[in-house]
Design brief:
Elements lengths: L1 H15 L2 H22 L9 H12 L3 E3 L3 E4 L6 E10 L8 E11 L11 E2 L1 E13 L24 E2 L2 E12 L4 E10 L6 E10 L2 E9 L11 E9 L2 E9 L7 E10 L6 H4 L9 E10 L2 E11 L2 E10 L5 E9 L2 E2 L20 E3 L20 E3 L9 H5 L1 E9 L2 E2 L6 E11 L2 E11 L3 E9 L6 E12 L5 E2 L2 E2 L1 E14 L3 H6 L2 E8 L2 E4 H7 L3 H9 L5 E14 L2 E11 L2 E10 L4 E10 L11 E6 L4 E4 L10 H9 L2 H8 L9 H10 L6 H4 L4
Parallel strand pairs: 5-7, 6-8, 18-22, 19-23
Antiparallel strand pairs: 1-3, 2-3, 3-4, 4-6, 8-9, 9-10, 10-11, 11-12, 12-13, 13-14, 14-15, 15-16, 16-17, 17-18, 20-21, 22-24, 24-25, 25-26, 26-27, 27-30, 28-29, 30-31, 30-32, 31-33, 32-33, 33-34, 34-35, 35-36, 36-37, 37-38
Helix pairs in contact: 2-3, 7-8, 9-11
Length: 686
C-alpha cells in the first residue's frame, strides 16, 4: 500500500513539474526557512545562536543546514531587518554529498504585524549569488521535495507577498533523470540595463536534444500583490518550440495564471518531456490557444492550428486534483488528411527519411494480366505497410483520458471515397479504447471498436469492426468502364499480442470475412475469371458492355497466429462459378491466393487454369498458372463443401444481409448437382 501511495504521488508531481516552477518552489522554501530562523531568534545573540538555528532548521527540513557567515538581526522595528551570510542546504542521502543550495547573502525585511494574523509580507528581499542544484532520479525522488510523504512538491506554488525582490548572480542547475533533462541557467531580478525585471535563461539537453529556456517578467522592485504580474516564456527542445505570453493573476501565486500559448514541432508525442502528457505521434504541427491554471486544473481553450495537412481545433482540460491525471475534451478537424493519420501508429509519412523493414515477396507468376489494374513488383522486396513503431506502455499507464475527435471531411489519396470520421477515445489505467469508431464513406461506413490493453509489459489488442454498403465499382475497372458493381459488407474480429500494429497483426487470431450479397459484373471480366480466352478477350476487344448478375461472392478467412487461411472463397455469376484457396501472411505481409473458375456453358477455348494473386500486400501481382489446368469434373462436389458454412457466415458479417443475399440459391443448386450438402447446410440463413 505504501508503494502504491509513493507511485501515485510521483505521477502527480511529474504532471505538474517544470524547471521554472521548481526553482520558484525552492525559493519559497528558502524564504520560509529564513523567516522561521528570524522568528525563533528575534531577541537572541545572533552569531552565538547560529548552532541552535542550524539544528532547528535541519530538523524541520530533513536536510543538513549550515550558516557559515554572520547572522545579523535588527529586531527593533515594525519591519525587522535580517541578514544571513553563507547559507547552505544539503541534499537528501540518495542525492549525493553536494549541497542542494548555496546562498552567499540574504538581506530581507519582514512586516511584523501581519505575522500575528498569519500573513507573511517581505517589504524587501535581496538575494546574492544563489546557487541551486535540483535533482530527480529515475524513481521520481526529488531533492526539492522536503516532505516525508513526497506530496508537497505537487502542491500549487504560492510564495509570500514580496514588495521589492532582487536576485543577483543566481545560478540554477537541474539534473532530471526521469525526463532526461540537464540544464544550467542564470537567474536575476533587477532594474539594471536592458535586462531589467526578472529573468531565467539557460540551456542544456532534454532527452538527448538541445534545450533552451528564456523566461522574462516585469520589474519586482514595486510588485503589487493585487495586480497581475506579466511574463513571457520561450522554450526550445530539439525541434519543439513553445512560447507563452501571459500573467500570474497575483504575483508569486503560481496556482492561478493565464497565457496565450503556441506549440510547434515535428511530433506531438515529444511534448511528453515538457508536459508529462502521453500524446499521440503526429506529423509536424503548429497550434496556438489560451491556457489557464486554477490550482490543479489546466485548460487549453479555443486552440487551433494544423497537424500535417489537417486543421485542428478544440478545447482540452487537464485535471490533476486526484492521484491520476485526467485529460478530457473535444477535438475536431474541418478536413483531415487521411494519409497522415497513420503517423499515430508510427507509419512513415510521405517524404520522411525513416529506415523501414523489408520483406521478401512471394514468387511471381510466370504470366500476368492487367484486368484489375494490378501490376507486378519491380523487385523482390517491399516496405511493410503495417507500422512497427513500439507503443510506450509506461506513458500510457501514467494518465487517463476521455476525448472525442471528429473530422467533418476527409482527404485521401486512395480509391476510398471517405467522407467523415468520429472517434471516442478512452484511456483508463493503461487500457486504451476507441469506442465508437466510425468512418463514413460517400456510400457505406465502417463502425466498430478497438482496444489496447497496456497494463502488461506486452500490450494486447482486440479489434471488432464492420464494413457495410461500400460500392465495389470504385475498385474494379476495365479501361474506363466499371468491371464490378454491387455493395461490399465485411467484418474483422481479431485478437493479437504485441507492442506495435505489425507485431499485434503478426500474432492475430480470429475471423475476417467479406460478402457481396448481390451485384453485377461485366461479362468480359466474368469470362476471364473462367479463363475463356476467346470469348473473354473478344468481349473486351469489342468493348462489349454486357452485364452478368453476381449471385453470391464470399471470402472468409480464419486467422491463426498472424496467418489468414482461406476458409471459403466463392464467386458465382450467371456465366462463371469460381472458388478460391490460399492465405494472407501478416507476419511478412504477403499473400498467396488462387481463384479457380469454371464456365457454366461449354466453351471451345476454355483454358481451365487458375488465376493467382501473389506477392507483397503493398504491390500484389495477378497472374495465370497455365501449367495447372483444372480438370473438368468434380467442381460441384468441391463447391458444396466450400459454401456449406455460408448460412452461418452471412449473419456474422451483417445480420441484415440474411434476407438480401442470393447465396442460399447457390447452396441449393450445388445440392441439385449432386454435391453432399446436408439439409441443415441448405436451410435458410439465421
Amino acid at each position: 500500500m505504501a508503494a502504491t501511495r509513493e507511485h501515485t504521488a510521483l505521477l502527480r508531481s511529474q504532471a505538474r513539474w517544470s524547471p521554472f516552477g521548481a526553482v520558484i518552489w525552492t525559493a519559497r522554501t528558502l524564504a520560509l526557512l529564513i523567516v522561521s530562523i528570524v522568528i525563533a531568534f528575534i531577541f537572541a545573540d545572533w552569531n552565538a545562536m547560529r548552532g541552535p538555528a542550524e539544528r532547528w532548521a535541519s530538523f524541520k527540513t530533513g536536510r543538513v543546514v549550515h550558516i557559515d557567515g554572520n547572522l545579523d538581526v535588527h529586531p527593533w522595528s515594525w519591519t525587522p531587518h535580517i541578514v544571513v551570510n553563507g547559507l547552505r542546504i544539503g541534499n537528501p542521502d540518495w542525492a549525493g554529498t553536494n549541497d542542494m543550495a548555496r546562498i552567499a547573502r540574504v538581506d530581507m525585511k519582514v512586516r511584523l504585524v501581519p505575522l500575528f494574523y498569519g500573513r507573511l509580507i517581505f517589504p524587501m528581499l535581496d538575494i546574492e549569488s544563489p546557487q541551486v542544484s535540483l535533482v530527480r532520479d529515475k524513481q521520481g525522488r526529488a531533492n526539492w521535495d522536503f516532505s516525508a510523504d513526497n506530496q508537497s512538491a505537487s502542491e500549487p506554488l504560492k510564495l509570500p507577498d514580496i514588495n521589492n525582490l532582487t536576485v543577483k548572480n543566481g545560478k540554477l542547475e537541474i539534473v532530471d533523470k526521469r525526463r532526461g533533462l540537464t540544464f544550467e541557467g542564470n537567474v536575476a531580478s533587477n532594474d539594471a540595463g536592458d535586462r531589467a525585471g526578472f529573468s531565467l535563461t539557460g540551456d542544456g539537453r532534454l532527452n538527448g536534444a538541445i534545450f533552451n529556456l528564456d523566461a522574462h517578467g516585469g520589474s519586482l522592485l514595486h510588485a503589487d500583490p493585487d495586480k497581475p504580474y506579466l511574463f513571457a516564456l520561450k522554450i526550445r527542445a530539439g525541434t519543439t518550440r513553445v512560447t507563452a505570453d501571459g500573467s500570474i493573476i497575483k504575483p508569486f501565486d503560481f496556482g492561478h495564471l493565464q497565457a496565450n500559448m503556441t506549440f510547434k514541432g515535428n511530433d506531438l508525442a515529444k511534448l511528453y518531456y515538457l508536459t508529462g502528457l502521453a500524446l499521440p505521434n503526429s506529423p509536424p504541427y503548429s497550434i496556438k490557444g489560451h491556457l489557464t491554471r486554477d490550482d490543479f486544473v489546466y485548460k487549453f481553450q479555443n486552440f487551433s492550428g494544423t497537424v500535417g495537412n489537417s486543421d485542428l481545433e478544440g478545447n482540452l482540460t487537464v485535471d490533476a486534483t486526484t492521484d491520476r491525471t485526467l485529460l478530457t475534451g473535444a477535438v475536431a478537424s474541418r478536413q483531415l488528411d487521411f494519409d497522415e493519420l497513420g503517423a499515430i501508429f508510427g507509419t512513415r509519412l510521405p517524404g520522411a527519411k525513416v529506415k523501414r523493414s523489408v520483406v521478401q515477396s512471394a514468387p511471381k507468376p510466370s504470366t500476368t494480366i492487367d484486368a484489375v489494374s494490378a501490376t507486378p513488383t519491380a523487385s523482390n522486396t517491399a516496405t511493410l505497410l503495417l507500422p512497427d513503431a513500439p507503443l510506450d506502455v509506461d506513458r500510457v499507464r501514467q494518465m487517463d483520458a476521455r476525448v472525442t475527435y471528429q473530422a467533418d471531411s476527409i482527404k485521401a489519396q486512395s480509391d476510398l471515397a471517405l467522407k467523415s470520421m468520429y472517434l471516442g477515445i478512452n484511456l483508463d489505467h493503461g487500457v486504451l479504447t476507441l469506442d465508437p469508431l466510425t468512418i463514413k464513406f460517400r456510400q457505406g461506413k465502417l463502425t466498430g471498436r478497438a482496444s489496447v490493453n497496456a497494463q502488461r509489459d506486452v500490450p494486447v489488442t482486440d479489434l471488432d469492426v464492420r464494413l457495410t454498403h461500400l460500392p465495389l465499382q470504385q475498385f474494379f475497372h476495365l479501361g474506363s468502364q466499371d468491371a464490378l458493381e454491387g455493395v461490399l459488407a465485411a467484418r474483422a474480429k481479431l485478437h493479437g499480442v504485441g507492442n506495435s500494429v505489425h507485431k499485434a497483426a503478426s500474432t492475430a487470431d480470429g475471423t475476417v470475412a467479406f460478402v457481396v450479397p448481390h451485384g453485377q459484373i461485366r461479362q468480359a471480366f466474368a469470362e476471364l475469371m473462367g479463363i475463356d480466352v476467346l470469348n473473354g478477350l473478344g468481349l473486351m476487344l469489342t468493348k462489349d458492355k454486357s452485364q452478368s448478375d453476381v449471385r453470391c461472392a464470399i471470402a472468409s478467412f480464419r486467422a491463426d497466429n498472424g496467418v489468414l487461411h482461406a476458409s471459403q472463397i466463392v464467386f458465382d455469376t450467371d456465366v462463371v462459378r469460381a472458388h478460391g484457396e490460399g492465405s494472407v501472411n501478416l507476419r511478412n505481409e504477403t499473400l498467396d491466393l488462387t481463384l479457380k473458375g469454371e464456365p457454366k456453358k461449354f466453351r471451345l477455348f476454355h483454358l481451365g487454369a487458375p488465376i493467382t494473386v501473389q506477392g507483397p500486400l503493398s504491390a500484389p501481382s495477378v497472374g495465370v498458372q497455365a501449367s495447372k489446368a483444372l480438370g473438368q469434373g468434380g467442381i460441384a462436389v468441391a463447391l458444396g463443401a466450400l459454401v456449406a458454412p455460408v448460412a452461418a457466415l452471412i449473419p456474422f458479417v451483417d445480420p441484415g444481409l440474411a434476407d438480401d443475399a442470393d447465396c442460399h440459391g447457390l447452396i441449393m443448386e450445388a445440392r441439385r448437382s449432386g454435391a453432399p450438402v446436408s439439409k441443415a447446410q441448405a436451410g435458410a440463413p439465421n
